Amino acid sequence: MFADSLKNTAMNPVHEHVLAAAQLFRSAAWQFSYPDVERAVLFTSKDSLDSHRALFDAVAKGRSFMVEECDALEDALVGYPPEKRAIDLRQEYTRLFITPPIRISLIGASWVKEKTLIARKKGEAYAVGQYYRSLGLVNQKPVRDPSDHLVSELDFTSYVVFAEAEAWRENDAESALEWRDLKEEFLSNHLAEFATKVSLEIQRETTSPFLLFSARMLNGLIGLSI
Questions:
Q1: Which of 40, 122, 129, 221 is most buried, judged by most C-beta within 10 A?
Q2: What CA–CA distance (Å, rounded) separates 219 from 223?
Q3: Do 48 and 42 touch, CB atoms closer than 8 A?
C-alpha cells in the first residue's frame, strides 16, 4: 500500500527519508478518519502492518523506530479473525471519538490554548486555517470538520512534507528548507501539543491494539519531526 510508492523514488537519501515521513503523516490522517468498513478491513490487515514497517525503516535512517509497536500489533493479529478486527476497530473508534459524551476530542481547540496571538484573538480553528489559506488549501466537500480537526492538521502536515520531499528530489535545498521551516512552525504552534495529548489520552482510554498503534505512531512521528 503506502510502501509501494517508495520503489520509484530517486536515489536521494534525504528525499527518501522525507518522503517516508510525508507518507506516514498521510497514513496518520487516514487512521484518525472515521473507519468505514473498507478502511477498517485494510488498516487491520497484516499487509497494512508490513507497509508501515517499510515506511518506519525508511524514515528512521538506521535508528530503531516503532519496532516494538509493530511487533506488538503483529502478535495481536494472531488468532484474531479479520472480520472481527474491523468490527472492533469501528466500535472502539465510535466509543472514543463520536458517541456523547465524547471521551477524546479530535479538535485542536480542546487541547491547545491560545499559543499564538491570532489564536488568542480569533480562536484556534481560525489560526490553523490561516496556514491552509496561505497555500490556497481548502477542505474538500463533503468535509465539514473545523480546520483544527486532527485529520485536517495531519493532512496539512503531510502536504507540506511532501512538498519538502519534492524539493529535495529536485535538489532545491533552499525550497526544501523553507518547507521544513513551515512544518516546524506549524507543529510548534499547533499540532505537536495537540497530537501528543491526544496520543496519551488514547493510550489511557483503550486496549484496542489498532488504536494503540495509531496513538503511538502519532506520538513517534511528532517526536521525529520537532
A1: 221
A2: 6
A3: yes
Is the previous residue joined to 82 through a cis bond, with omega within 30 degrees of 0?
Answer: no
Q: What DSSP character marks residue 65?
A: -
pTM surpassing 0.90? yes
User: In which element (H, E) is residue 20 found?
Assistant: helix 13-31
Burial 124-146 (b: 16+ CB within 10 A, else e): bbbbbbebbeeeebebeeeeeeb
Return the CATH architecture of domain 2-225: Orthogonal Bundle (1.10)
CB 226 within 8 A of CB 187: yes
Give domain limits for the chain: 2-225
Among residues 76, 78, 89, the alpha carbon closest in space to that of 39 is found at 89
For residue 188, the 8-state DSSP code is I
CA–CA dist 165, 159 (Å, integer): 10
* 33-89 confidence digits (pLDDT tens): 999 999 999 999 999 999 999 999 999 988 889 999 999 999 999 999 999 999 999
Long-range contacts (CB closer than 8 Å, 24 or more residues apart) made by 58-61: 58/6, 58/16, 58/17, 58/19, 58/20, 59/17, 59/20, 59/21, 59/24, 59/224, 61/13, 61/17
Q: What is the dihedral of CA 59, 196, 148, 120, to 10 degrees?
A: -130
19-33 exposure pattern, b = at least 16 Cβ within 10 A, e = fewer:
bbbbbbbbbbbbbbb
Query: Cα–Cα distance between 194 and 110 in angstroms, integer?
Result: 8
